[in-house]
Amino acid sequence: MTVKQISFEVNTDPEVIRFTHLSNGAVWKGPLTLEQYADREHSMFQGNLCQKNNNKKIIEKYGKTNAQWLGLKHFILKDKSLEDKSKTSQIVAGCETLNRIGFTAIDGKIVPILVLCIGGVFTQEAHRGKGYAKEMILGLHKYFDEIRDRATTPFLKNMIITLYSEVEEYYARLGYKSDHAAVHKISQLDTLLKEYCIDGKNVKYLDFDGYDDLIQLQSNQMERDILASHLQDPSKFVFGVKPDIHNYEWFEIRDLFIRSKLFPEQLDKKIAFGCRLPSNSHVIWHHNWNGNSLILIKTFIANGDDLEETMGVFLQNAVMEAKEHNLSKLEFWDTEINSVKYPKLFKILERDSKNNKLYLTNGSLSAYRAPIGFTNDQVKWQENTKFCWF
């Protein structure tokens, strides 16, 4: 019996990166072809979020020691007991991490930290059932744990790893705790328009960029919320992914690429990525062409604005955007829009629970691995909503 010779490696070779995307694309490509899927992943990799480690302003603000670990990182697992016929012949598994700036609170103060999110985990079909996926994740843990243990900055010392599992609770055995966020899918858009939506005045649609001021408002609110949670229970590790316009751009690049391949006839139609009110209340959305829905990624309601009335304006514009692009549903996570904050909305939605699918199990099960010095039960994920997703 051949003994496995495992080698966990960082992958920076463009040819090998494309090979990994062609290998995992059968699971995640949706209606795209494999080549289109690999092109999409490359396009997103070139975006500002995935290249954050090369951003001069970020390097100046956080220092090169910290900034180098930001952005999208690629990893492969080789079994060197296999025949070495090419640069990819020994690759049995792979994954990526999207590494972003986050916040936590230490001793009553907000501190920036590194938040990793694992994605793109795959095992080559011919090698499944042999424990390679587990070896892949354990290798990733060892790699980043060593970075953390060598670090001298709070940014790296307090790093935390998250993921979105599409294999249910598989990662629990590897030290992760799930933090489920239910999903709501709304099909009765005309009922929503008639009974809840409000035609707001002076509403402006959001373009690809140019709304940094709104993201700063989100960031300020998150800092306040994390600090409040920390002061309420200092024994907990409270963290969140810092709102970042480049994070929303990442969704937009994905959005525009898929539309260009699946619906080229719509390219002349103007597309919006959300809307803002004069008060700076705003909603950001994503066109989920694969799922025939408009996903509300983030909502922000300014102090003094009525929650339900403002949500009525958001949904009015979201429904009109969905209809403009022939999308039949609205979709949002319960951590973003829920019955506690919006009882009037949910009373209307629940009247037609046959067509409005509420409290669905999220196909991307969010989970985290506690940082050093904490147990999973001592961790609180602040604003675990769609905008964190990878």
UniProtKB/TrEMBL annotation:
UniProt lineage: Eukaryota, Fungi, Dikarya, Ascomycota, Saccharomycotina
SUPFAM superfamilies: Acyl-CoA N-acyltransferases (Nat)
Pfam families assigned: GNAT_LYC1-like
PANTHER family: LYSINE ACETYLTRANSFERASE, N-ACETYLTRANSFERASE DOMAIN-CONTAINING PROTEIN
Coiled-coil spans in chain: none
Cited InterPro entries: Acyl_CoA_acyltransferase, GNAT_LYC1-like, LAT
Name used for this protein in its record: LYC1 C-terminal domain-containing protein
Organism: Henningerozyma blattae (strain ATCC 34711 / CBS 6284 / DSM 70876 / NBRC 10599 / NRRL Y-10934 / UCD 77-7)
Domain LYC1 C-terminal as annotated: residue spans: 201-390
